[in-house]
Amino acid sequence: MSVPEALVAQEGTYRLRRSGLEARWVPAVDHWLGTGATLRRVRSPGFFVAKVPLSRSALAWALAASQGPVGTAGPDAEQAAPCTWAQAEQVCAALSRIEGVELRLPTGEAWELAARGPDGRLFPWGNSLREDGASRASPWGVEGLVASLPQWARDEATGGRWLCGGREQPLCVSRREVATTDAAALGAVRWVLASRH
């Protein structure tokens, strides 16, 4: 794996160089995706993903910092900020300008890879429903996947919009399509950064 220049590696963690937001590595290994008739084995391309969805303060910082220097975003440990699709794309564009590299919303499959790990588990934490599941990380250390808000993801093939995870759909394979005309739908923002091989 080659760590992109936009990331700083320290003691097994990765942070975006300018904002300080933490990332996790989803390695290029075989994963299970889908369920039932759609279950299939795929190889992850290897990518970095935000450890947690963006909080209100990190979101506000990104929008302000994309206009000029204002320090770093700081720890992103607060609750995720609810955003419309347009706001989610705006925040990813702002972070991309700040970091000098393309950060974007994950595809539905990338979100599932980050949540599920290589063993085909049903939930980010394992195969049985848990009361404390929202506080548990995926096998790759990605957190907040099934917290209160679902998270935005895109469909590369169709340009569709998805909401993945959240308290109402904790299964790793759960996602619901959001109509492009639904400007009121809200989700959290989790960015991804592709690795250079």
UniProtKB/TrEMBL annotation:
Give the source species: Corallococcus llansteffanensis
User: Which InterPro entries does the UniProt entry name for this protein?
Assistant: CTDL_fold (IPR016187), SUMF_dom (IPR005532), SUMF_sf (IPR042095)
Q: Which Pfam families match?
A: FGE-sulfatase (PF03781)
Q: What is this protein called?
A: Sulfatase-modifying factor enzyme-like domain-containing protein
The domain of life for this entry's organism is Bacteria
Q: Which residues cross the membrane?
A: none
| Stretches assigned to the Sulfatase-modifying factor enzyme-like domain | 84-140
